Amino acid sequence: MLVKNDRISEIIDGKRVIVKKPELLAPAGNLEKLKIAVHYGADAVFIGGQEYSLRANADNFTIEEIREGVEFANRYGAKVYVTANIYAHNENIPGLDDYLRALEDAGVCGIIVADPLIIETARRVAPKLEVHLSTQQSLANWKAVQFWKEEGLERVVLAREVGAEEIRQIKEKVDIEIEAFIHGAMCSAYSGRCVLSNHMTARDSNRGGCCQSCRWDYDLYQLSDGREIPLFEKGDAPFAMSAKDLNLIRAIPVMIELGVDSLKIEGRMKSIHYVATVVSVYRKVIDAYCADPDHFMIREEWVRELEKCANRETAPSFFDGFPDYTNHMYGTHSRKTTHEFAGLVLGYDPKTGIATVQQRNHFRPGDEVEFFGPEIENFTQVIEKIWDEDGNELDAARHPLQIVKFKVKRPLFPYNMMRKEN
Amino acid sequence: MKKPELLVTPTSVAHIDELAEAGADAVIIGEQRYGLRLAGEFSRADVAAAVKAAHRRGMNVYVAMNAIFHNDKVDELGDYVAFLADVGADAIVFGDPAVLLTVRETAPHMKLHWSTETTATNWYACNYWGRKGAKRAVLARELNMDAILEIKAHAEVEIEVQVHGATCMYQSKRSLIGSYFEYQGKVMEVERKKYEKGMFLYDKERDNKYPIFEDENGTHIMSPNDVCIIDELGDMIEAGIDSFKIDGILHEPRYITDVTKLYRRAIDLCADDRERYEREKEELLAAVEALQPPHRRIDTGFFFKETVY
Question: What keywords tag this UniProt record (chain A) (predicted)?
Fold first, then answer.
């Protein structure tokens, strides 16, 4: 429920505006994604280093890349946080001091952590780093938030099981920055309290080895007097614990009025197309709401835009109440996205109207494509002739990362993207 | 040699005498409103009676308040803590820092055991919670023997290790069994069936059966086998591990009692006459195997497993 919050708004020229805008926090699995996220409007990004982070399979950043990422982000006034949210084992203790010092030295703003080992070590060896409590701690009540505030943490990420009314109570009782998820894949378990991967594949889920066993199919039976009775009929979809992805676009006004300090998009493993699409949509929603909250309407084109990069169904999860069966996926897994990333704009010549584009997926003359980016309104057009860099005409842009040129009907800017319907 | 405490899970007040007879040193009890995955449900009256029964037999009573709490229960934690102090519980088992703060406010002398099940994975974290007021840390089940011994060597708090029984692999706040019935359109089944016992998930690829159940704390999925290391207690006893837990969840009281007797024998033998323990431990293991229900095998959990990430 939307309740206007005086503490974050002011009346300016007779109109209410939100003066305390939440941070839009985006995932960045590598340096290219970081640059895209920042360029498309993220106020901050979170990245993983080579160690101590929970996505062992993501590209992850070297210290040098982190330094470069911080420099890039700082040019836009954006911040970089590093996830160091494993639950460490004894063997992870050596090297932690040096790693945290290196992050501080690279100009990282803060770290996202779960293990008290890492919290206290950071305070001791890298005191300039902000310390944010990870959702891995499954923080779900105001008193636990109070505890971590007393421990000196700057920010807490709440459990994904915490709903809007609970956030309101927490905000009222404790003065600490709150970060909450708005979009992306969800653990269906309380984070940090799932070791399915450890049991099923000997991979430590709480040190980045999660193999997503919660997305597999299982059959539900009941043992009764030694007999195993199936609790499904022939043809029924199998039992699943798979949660639909979170999508809170329609709840952003509520989130902002709650005074949530940072709105977080999940997905360090996602593509630059995904990052660009999701960040730019939420950027628009947040800016539009904060500029004129009392006349704000969600635009259906924003909702549709998010659909273009979604490969799973979405649901509000715990935000509005207890999630029922429609929040879970039965019998289906991920699907193909409706659109695919076709090219990254490198340049545009206003004299000729010709764009230079790096190919990211096959396209050819006659294809209808859509352009989007922070400087432009989305537009679609049919591609006419395509040339290579030397001016030779091509029948298609068929090679990954190939640089091609073609006419576009409106001006474009570097880092704009081109997508194509599947 | 110092013997570790033998900590067990009674299913009822009446069961406590039997477990004392079987050689248990301590029990963990509670109710699902505050505690996670207990072998039995103990109302306040039961807790009071259980403390009396246990103390009469010289046993300690630990009460579980290790749920993940949401705002709705925060204000009632103090009342429960005060009740537990009043009836003389020997320690409160917690995972959520809200409980820690409540105990500081309400009953500062109450002992605390830190137990989140999955996150006590290094000695520093154990000592951290020790500095915050915990007297004991209950280690994650996903550690191997070497890691356990290393933690003990660095620990400033008591260390508890589960040596027997089912372990929890997954806890969700979601109602996953109820949701599946709803999805199937079995509306009538939802309330009637979702809290029933004996359900399991079958994993075809691994040919494993994982017990699953729902309660006030959500949906819980348990390990396919019971851990049993009755024949591998030597190094931990020598290292001075403070408490060995037998978790009897999903088992009959009789089973829990019989397993307790076997571990009593194993601990006594190992501490008093190590050579004899080495000679007899295979028999003890065979005796446990003979007690297992047909659908539940035993294994050694993560004690001798390498986990990668």
Answer: Hydrolase, Protease
